[in-house]
Amino acid sequence: MLASLAALLSTTLRMATPLILASLGGMFSESSGVINIALEGIMLIGAFTAMAGSYFVGPWFGVLAAVIVGMLVALVHAIASITFRADQIVTATAINIFATGITGFLLRLIFGDAGQSPSVQDVGTWTLPGINKIPFIGDVIGTQIPFVYIALILVAVSYWVLFKTPFGLRLRSVGEHPAAADSVGINVFKMRYIAVIMSGFFAGLAGASLSVGLLDLFVKNMASGRGFIALAAMIFGKWTPHGALMAALLFGFADALQMLAQTLGLTFVPRQFLLMAPYILTILALAGVVGRSTPPAADGEPYIKEEV
Amino acid sequence: MTASNELAVEMKGITKRFPGVLANDNVDLQLKHGEIHALLGENGAGKTTLMNCLYGFLEADEGDIFINGEKVKVTNPNVAIAHGIGMVHQHFMLVPPFTVTENIVLGGEPSKNSMIDYKKARKEVEEISEQYGLQVDPDAKVQDISVGMQQRVEILKALYKGAEILILDEPTAVLTPQEVEELVSIMESLTDEGKSIIFITHKLKEVKAIADRVTVIRSGKWIDTIDTNSATTNELANMMVGREVILELEKEKAQPGEVVLEVEDLYAKNNRDLMALNGASFSVRRGEILGIAGVDGNGQTELTEVLTGLRKKESGTIKFKGREIKKPQTKRLFEEGISHVPEDRQRRGLVMDFSLYENLILGRHDRKPYASKFKMNYKTVKNEARRLIKDFDVRTPNEVVKAKSLSGGNQQKLIIAREFDREPDLLVAAQPTRGIDVGAIEYIHEKLVEQRNNNKAILLLSLELDEILSLSDRIAVIYEGEIVDILDVEDATEEKLGLMMAGAESEEVEGGNDVGR
Amino acid sequence: MVDKDISEKKANYLKSMKIFDYIIPILSVVAGLLVGAIFMKIIGADPIEAYKVLWSSSFGSMRGFSEMLVNTIPLIFTGLAVAFGFRIGLFNIGGDGQFLIAYLASAYIGFLFQLPMYFHLPLAVLAGILAGGVWGGFAGYLKATLGVHEVITTIMMNYIALYFVGYMASGPLKAQGGLPATPKIFDSAKLPRLMTGLRLHWGIFLAIGAAILIYYILWKTPLGYEVRATGQNSDAAEFGGINVAKNLMLAMFISGALAGLAGTSQALGLEYRAYQPFGFIGYGFTGIAVALVGKSHPLGVVLGALLFGVLARGAMMMQSMVGVPKEVVQIIQASIIIFVASEYIFKYLVRKWRERKGDVIDAS
Question: In this predicted complex, what is the ipTM?
């Protein structure tokens, strides 16, 4: 019983990892005032890139490539929505459509298959010496894919950056009241660019965690809504790293439960209902049923300098 | 040719264009060390634009800027700050959920081990606040402090960054006359310490009272720079407007009739869910203008919105034409005969991307003769629009252009046309002349008095004490959501109203000198 | 008359910039096709050849033309859904969810009982309208009452719909047999085909009718006035006695119902049952592109839907005949959206160019 609970929690951590990473990305972007619903698309591109990188060179090269490509795609979102003042939702939607297109295009082109890539080398697992010997805890967290540890560390780092450093204060001021930030010499455009590119870093990493972490291949549309669940986790977590972590774990748990139920052939709850859970919870959170979430004041608004 | 070194700032030939508008046209400005220099002009004359160019918020298209004799290209606020320029904006540039300390240090945070050193920041804020006698609570969140304190935070913010040259944009708009005096003494102590101040205003009296010299601009052009002593208020007015201005409004005594609106013990909350109206009571009669005087943020906005159904009341009664209105709803109030000139014409009053004719039926758009249930009757609408545009002297090529293509004054006339044409019993006019040129102000004042003479009841809310004094028949002073007292205009003086605007009862004001603060 | 001169010039200026509302979508489409061509070049295919195939696949045969229109029908609906939302200032990104819910609802009414056609078909269509409308209207309700951003709600509602319809089609409503789908609908609920042998069905009339109706609502009725006023400035609308909350809900209902009609025509016109979905077809997202290219005008939406209908129809043919992966169409589509959305850059460049010509309006 305890062993299967440990297995369940271990799966929870694994399933939560891409969500944690992507929601951190969304959080940085939105803290600066740029909505980024392109997380889904960037994840997908990241997943493909990581797989291809692993196929041609090696898994960690793939991870690096995914992160870089993620940042480049985010840069497109930044240019369109910050400099050209395009609607942030529209741009991001275009990126999501583009992501489906380009990954499908390249999959067919390079691997000649429309459905999935061949199996590639994944990044394997890491073991925490000592901890893996502790009963139960060791089973949950002692041996995991590296992304789990990376994600947890990045949560702490993000918290520190956002709430303890001058950079974080400035970033948040840009998201709350860009004109005020501008008036004390903070470059609003630069801060937003940095934040959006950071979100590309995180979403790219999240994508890599899918194709060379959780799995060892790329499947068409493999992000399958995780970018949006990550967005949900960010909202559910009230735009804070620790909140996003908790929300992602909750959603990951629902996912793990669903997988467990499927493998065990349990049907006490239809699996679709568990899959729906994160989305329903998020709507409830936004509606204030489980603690009201309010976004940064200038979230989604382009900063227009030249109109006084 | 270099600029003289006794000048803190010299701006030469500044030109700034916006799409479709030339905001500054070859403007000059010279600020001497240690002086208070007023920048005087009508609303929309280009004062703020000019100062935004100096502060690096905007970049001038043409012209040169010298700071302490050195030619500087002020490409962004950092450059200005580095050269010792600080600006207190009319709309405060503060981040509401941040603390006072965070706001003051933002952009130049003291740090240790790449973390913000909050202890040091707080200490520095306290020191500087003491040094200049500007009391603030360093740990309070800006969203929780009063407007007056927010202004102090803004000034401290500039001083913290080492400002030697301060730009204050319409700093008195949010203050009582007494607070203005306090601000003036702060400004004087700052100049005593060698700082130089540019002070943007459109109020002539302030220029005379506060500034050493004044630069007047009109329609984006430089008119003159003179010593304030060398011109009378009237002469300044002429320079500002470009023609003779009638400062006093002629009107006969009111002949008030029956009570139209009776408000009793009204309570309402503001957007932040705090009580903003705390038992306000007053009444307005036919044929009179009741002016509501008060410092911004004392419940005027909420009062207007409750009376026009845009905000719900917590408790209290509103009687209109003798009947109690239990649940004020905008649409019903319109139909009952309340018209409303909103305080923010661009946000509330007009749909800027709608044509003039569409704007002119807002509120009546679903009624005959403009529409039936499933069909708009745009032909009638356009005919009516042409009539109103003519009757109310709205300067526009035609009724099809969008509202945003009109000047501020004409936009306001458009609203006045729509609201007056309804033949209301009560007219709620909130800041009816804010931000518009003198010509339009005069026109709107005339129209208001005309409506009063036509036996309408008018409730006038204004932050401009002069406007209240010249238009009202009776004056109610609002403070923290309560009507402190109601005076006949004959009994009201600026000083008395000022003290009441800070919360003093009128008997206290009559009583002696050591009251009010 | 100084004032008049200014506003006349300002008005003329604004008017002269208006022409870009028409030029930008066309330029964007051209630019999008160029991006597609670049991708084709990279893989060594001939773009001109490919675009010839694209053209002839829709206009080269009656069957091709019919198939193109079959692709266009749902896009008109979802395009109108997004456009109508835009008009009131809401972003309905939930077209795919509304599509699915209506798809299921129409199929359900279609197989549940047999009725005379003149009664059954309208009832099945109505079921789709209501289902899609309620699904979209819920987002409007949350927006109106609690200020919850409709983009987030509608995204979440998409996935809820996906799993819910999946559950129903493979569970409670599943037909006998191995197929995860509902039973077939009765003939009396089917949207008739226009010609034997072609799949084009009456949905095309529904779609065009919807476009006309939306045009009429927006510009000829008090409701349209209120919707547009709310979309341009909800504070002013509220000031004008317009019940903003009610209008937001109503508009999201209408928007959802429109997207729902896409699902309805899929169920009643093409598939004659509801299958368990394994992902989104993406009509809702393409609807965004359609609305943008069509500048949120019903006529523009119809034209935009035709454009994307042609692209969708040609995708397979380009793949089989010229060896261009069909996903290139999505790349073209994404590029067009980015270009249209970045219209600011076009306007900015034009403004700079005009300023350099000295075409500036003097304030004095």
Answer: 0.87
